[in-house]
Design brief:
The chain is mainly alpha-helical. It has three domains: 4-43, no CATH class; 59-219, no CATH class; 304-444, Cytochrome Bc1 Complex, Chain D, domain 2. Helix content is 41%, strand content 5%. It has helices at residues 4-13, 29-42, 63-73, 76-80, 91-94, 128-137, 152-155, 160-170, 188-198, 228-251, 262-287, 294-302, 316-331, 334-338, 374-383, 399-402, 407-419; strands at residues 101-104, 108-111, 207-211, 347-350, 354-357, 441-444. It is elongated, with a radius of gyration of 28 Å.
């Protein structure tokens, strides 16, 4: 506790089994009270108390320190740090160095990028502003990022200053050589047909897969890019297409190779224009949703996120805390797994952990967090321990990242969860590993598949 008497007891008797020793034999009673009074003088008004203000590490002026805090509390490491077969991150040698394979059929198979400061395979040759644009908008100088491979639509909610702070921190990471291939895409016709079948413009994959291991080349780029087979196949297809068109033209009799009349020329020109327009439309459809502006995509994803109602809060400090919680809920990608309404139900399966379903974290008393205390929610966020004492798997509920949250940010998230409208949505309990589990970590994008295993 923070009461003066509690502080005096800790100074007097120590705090076993922690390293803090007792000072009863070293300081007089009055001297111990002097220490307590000094400690109390250092305290600031809590941001949730009257007169308090938000002052967590995400508010510090130094962009590198602020970016370090944000990067460690977001899900950056979830995809950009490879894992082993048991789900343990290779943080000692490949922290944020990329290399995780992400499957998103029918869009592509991606390999997460190297975010370290290596100039050849990482972000060392990119500016802070360019990196910030990639984080918030999925736009790099050479390509547009598909949000099924990198969920930048949630990071779009970051302020520009926070995005630049993260970029500034990434520029300070020790360089690691890890050369990732470009996304491997499916055939044009297959991609177009399957995206049309799944519904445009999003064409949501049924599942997203995240493979353990490092699918990058831990070295400098070689003479050939890692995706040279795909480039070769694409080039061969174009050669066959153009060559076939040329052969079709010259195959007929010489007098019939070109239109003979003005009407034939007009019809031929119209046919060429029609084919070109059809090809253009097909190309745009096959590349969806990448052509859409970032603001539109982010609005479609997060536009339904409930906002704190100022009239529902008794003090400005309580309102500011809940608004900070909304900011974290969006940018830390809580909505990615739990939905904008907090109803949960997304299925995750992997042979290393079994089947879990993202929990209902709305304010519903029976099926959500309505009956949980603030302390119980805080313990689940930072320590991965549920209300009933069950341990939450870190690859299902990423408490290993959220353990880095500052106290006021944890309280901010809790304050926001309290205002989520109650959603009655019963979620199944965890199902332990079984023989029919997926060999690769698999996340179902459509909720309410309550069948355990890889099906």
């Amino acid at each position: 506790g923070s009461a003066p008497e509690q502080l005096w007891l800790r100074v007097t008797h120590g705090l076993a089994p922690s390293p803090m020793p007792p000072f009863a034999d070293k300081l007089t009673e009055n001297e111990r009270w002097d220490v307590v009074n000094y400690v109390l003088s250092l305290a600031r008004v809590a941001p949730w108390a009257p007169g308090g203000k938000l002052d967590s590490p995400r508010d510090v002026a130094d962009p590198v320190k602020r970016g370090e805090y944000i990067a460690h509390t977001e899900i950056c490491g979830l995809c950009h740090t490879p894992i082993n077969r048991s789900g343990i991150y290779r943080g000692d040698d490949y922290y944020l160095a990329g290399g995780m394979r992400v499957g998103a059929y029918p869009h592509a198979t991606f390999v997460s990028r190297n975010l370290t400061a290596d100039p050849e395979t990482g972000l060392g040759d990119k500016s802070v502003d360019e990196i910030a644009g990639i984080i918030r908008n999925g736009r790099a100088s050479d390509r547009t990022l598909n949000f099924w491979g990198m969920p930048w639509m949630f990071l779009h909610s970051l302020t520009e200053d926070d995005a630049r702070a993260v970029a500034a921190y990434l520029k300070t990471l020790p360089p690691v050589k890890n050369d990732e291939p470009a996304p491997v895409e499916y055939g044009f016709v297959e991609t177009l047909v399957m995206k049309l079948a799944r519904g445009l413009p999003v064409a949501a994959p049924e599942v997203l897969t995240y493979a353990d291991g490092n699918y990058a080349r831990p070295a400098s780029p070689g003479l050939l890019p890692l995706d040279w087979p795909q480039r070769g196949l694409v080039a061969t297809q174009w050669i066959v297409l153009v060559g076939g068109l040329g052969l079709w033209i010259v195959a007929g009799p010489r007098e019939r190779r070109l239109p003979a009349t003005r009407r034939s020329w007009v019809l031929t020109a119209l046919a060429v224009v029609g084919v070109a327009l059809a090809a253009l439309v097909a190309s745009v459809l096959a590349n969806l949703p990448k052509p859409f502006p970032p603001d539109i995509i982010a609005e479609q994803v997060l536009g339904s996120l409930p906002e704190p109602d100022p009239a529902a809060f008794q003090t400005p400090e309580a309102l500011a805390l809940a608004q900070r919680g909304e900011y974290i809920y969006a940018s830390a990608s809580c909505a990615f797994c739990h939905g904008t309404d907090g109803a949960g139900g997304a299925k995750i399966n992997w042979s290393a952990m079994g089947t879990i379903w993202t929990r209902n974290i709305s304010s519903d008393v029976e099926t959500g967090l309505g009956a949980w205390s603030d302390a119980e929610i805080a313990r689940a966020i930072r320590s991965g321990v549920s209300r009933d004492g069950r341990q939450l798997h870190w690859q299902g509920m990423t408490w290993d990242h959220f353990a880095n949250f500052d106290e006021e940010d944890v309280r901010a998230v809790i304050a926001y969860l309290r205002i989520l409208p109650p959603v009655e949505h019963e979620i199944p309990i965890y199902s332990p590993p079984s023989l029919d589990d997926c060999s690769i970590y698999t996340f179902w994008t459509v909720p309410d598949n309550f069948t355990p295993g890889c099906k």
